[in-house]
Amino acid sequence: MVDTRTDKESIIKTDNVSIFYGAFQAVRNVFLDIPKNNVVAFIGPSGCGKSTLLRCYNRLNDLIPSAKVQGQITYNGTNLYDPRIDPVEVRRRIGMVFQQPNPFPKSIYDNVAFGLKISGFQGNIDERVEKSLRKAALWDEVKDKLQASGLSLSGGQQQRLCIARTIAVEPEVILMDEPCSALDPISTVQIENLIHELKEKFTIVIVTHNMQQAARVSDKTAFFNAGADDGGSRFGYLVEYDDTRTIFGSPKQEKTQEYISGRFG
Amino acid sequence: MKTQPPNSTETLLEASTQFKVVRSIDKNFRRVTFGLAIGIGLILVWITYSLLVIALPAIQTFGLGFLVDSTWDPVKNIYGALPHVYGTILSSFLALLFSVPLGVGVAIFLTENFLAPKILQPIALTIELLAAIPSVVYGLWGLFVFLPAIKPLFQGLNHNFGWIPFFSTEPGGRQLLGASLVLAIMILPTIIAISRDTLTSLPPKLRQGAYGLGATRWETIMLVLLPAALSGIVGSIMLALGRALGETMAMAMLIGNANQANISWLAPASTLSSLIANQFGEASGLQKSSLFYEALILMVLTLLVNIFAQMLVSRFQQVE
Known about the structure:
Helices cover 33% and strands 28% of the residues of chain A.
């Protein structure tokens, strides 16, 4: 396995991580560090474990009873899977935006304020809601109908609402699991522009099927692939992790070259 | 049914021989179902009409005063429905008071990964079976097993809290509170089953969204899932209320059939349906007419509950 750890200040360190669903090994021996205030893209064919790994970064895989993580994931030096760590606290610091926009069946305002209310936010909620909606480039479209249902918005607006909801609680890291795959091209461009701006304040890890998207938005790119061992059981592994420019310009691994030039995947 | 690829020598017209048959089946099916749909409406009209016609003498004699009069005297031929309306509404209300928190709680417990699926299945099955028990069996069990078993509890209520009007009478063998408890058990499966179905049908992405924002399991349940499932839960409660209002056999066996509207829950009472079940055999003339008047009241009551439920459900759906 290639050790692709970087020396820059890393907010999340993935140290020899393997992930299992029951006896099935979904991800094998990943070493990968996420530098602070960078956008890191995970690319690769379906079934290569990139979303699985992403969900381990905020312990969302805990919801699947059979899921098990081996190795160590540290966040600011703390082991995320230490038995003393409350997963709820992890998720407040490492937020997530999902593939399908999933606003709550509540008003736009309540969607954004939800995270603030459950975390016992003491400041001015109105102010924070507006700030978050502005940051998510949604404010101008919804400022006159904050009490309308979040579900009344278009798909692209819903996804930006979900981003606003996530950044309202000011996490350090935002995980995005194919955030544009359910959106039209115009909404996709809007979200991508948003990612560029969010980088100033947040560290972003984005899983995407769209290689152009990875090239456009990310600083670093990790290419995952699905392999099969001698017994024929499939698993995902990290092939190469480097600056996005390098991955798309002069990748070191032949597999990466094949994938980015569209020969498989 | 042609499964072979179209034959090039066969014309479109030749290949359409089946179409006439298919079309006539369609047409006749539509006629039959239309007729049946009309028929159901007619039966509803027929029932309402005959209730009105037979109740008419009582309506003319007692008017709306029937609702607030508590006399039921076949000798003097004076009738009033107050104790029965009171008993019906109070027993249903008490039954809901017990079964709603319990039912919604169990539904949450059964859906939100509190239990391993292996244990869950038998529990869910048992609850469904509870709904299949005939009400006369509930009545028999309530009368000979359940009520005697909890009688000490009722006596304790009376001795210690007798100063509260609701517990101010010495509990007898059959009374309103006991009957309401059995009623609560009877409507529990309805609430659990429908609330559970609503909760399981919520999209998983809703749960993930809440957990992803750092909500605890209880915050997810109370702040996201329950509000989203509210229309289904309210619907289940209204269905259960409909059943409770109309429940006859068990109530006739358990409530004591006393013609009184007593403030105390520990006193025997009667309901609209239990009165009808007890008296229809020997009733004639104005008494029979009064029984039909009571039936009409019961029908209007359940109708109102249903309309109210529809309104509530549609209002919650708008919010979603």
